[in-house]
Amino acid sequence: MLLNISKVKEDYNISRITLLRWEKEGIITPYRTPKGRRRYKKEELEEIMGLKEQIKSKKVILYGRVSTIKQEEYLKNQINRLEKYAQSKGYEYIVISEIASGVNEHRRGLRTLLTKIKTGEAEKVIIEYPDRLARFGYEYLKNFINAFGVELIVMKEEEETEDLNKELAEDLIAIVTSFAGRLYGKRVGRRSVKSKE
What we know:
2 domains; four-stranded parallel beta sheet; 9 helices; 7 strands; 15% strand
């Protein structure tokens, strides 16, 4: 598979300068398109970065999430249950956990998880409940994960009502806060434009 410079940067966080230096040092030889643009072999990049060895040892990813810092103890218990499940199956695993709203589109942990899936570092992803992955858009994420040949394992289909109600309340507050911030920002923007006229 051939990748352009921007795709290499996105998937492997390797800069253009680094690629050109590696080329100059003879570490990597890019393929040239008829228009002279550089393309890099995915396999060659992974071999240089030692990703093939890393991929062998990181087959299963356990992902846990809670919405607020108040639920930190629940997150620890959630991870503990995920680890027990993985150990009972004999999986080698890594853990990604975070404290962030299920409606937050910029979660660092989720982005790390999706990057590991894209770069072939995951064989399976295990979550406790579907809404640990996302409050909305779960099916989209599931389809994304499956598209890379990764199995998504959900330990339980439905969350306990008490925990679910607390999470939903937190996420509702997050949605309202975000909406109010955007609305207020637009109003301020309109006012400043009118004052200039």
